[in-house]
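Per your request, structure below.
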C-alpha cells in the first residue's frame, strides 16, 4: 500500500507542475513530457494520461494510462481506476 501512496504523490506533484507551467505559457515541459511518454517512459505515460483527463480528453488519457499500467506504474493504475470509477473515457465501473 505504501508504494501506491508514494507513487500517487509523485504523480500528483508532477502533474501540478506540468499544469502550472503550461498555464504560465511554458509549453516546453509538455513537449518534453510527450516525448518521454512516446519513448515508453511509464511515469511520463501516467502523467500524460492524467493530464489528458484534466483537459477532458478522456479517450487519449485512457490510452496513455493503459500503456503506463502495462509497465506496472502504480500512479497510472490509480488514475486509470479513478477514470473507471467516474466513467471518464471508459464505462463506469
Amino acid at each position: 500500500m505504501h508504494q501506491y501512496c508514494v507513487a500517487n504523490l509523485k504523480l500528483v506533484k508532477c502533474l501540478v507542475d506540468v499544469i502550472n507551467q503550461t498555464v504560465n505559457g511554458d509549453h516546453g515541459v509538455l513537449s518534453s513530457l510527450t516525448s518521454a511518454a512516446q519513448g515508453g517512459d511509464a511515469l511520463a505515460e501516467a502523467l500524460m494520461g492524467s493530464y489528458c483527463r484534466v483537459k477532458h480528453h478522456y479517450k487519449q488519457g485512457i490510452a496513455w494510462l493503459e500503456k503506463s499500467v502495462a509497465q506496472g506504474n502504480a500512479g497510472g493504475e490509480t488514475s486509470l481506476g479513478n477514470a473507471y470509477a467516474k466513467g471518464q473515457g471508459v464505462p463506469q465501473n
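The mean pLDDT is 86.

Regards,
D.
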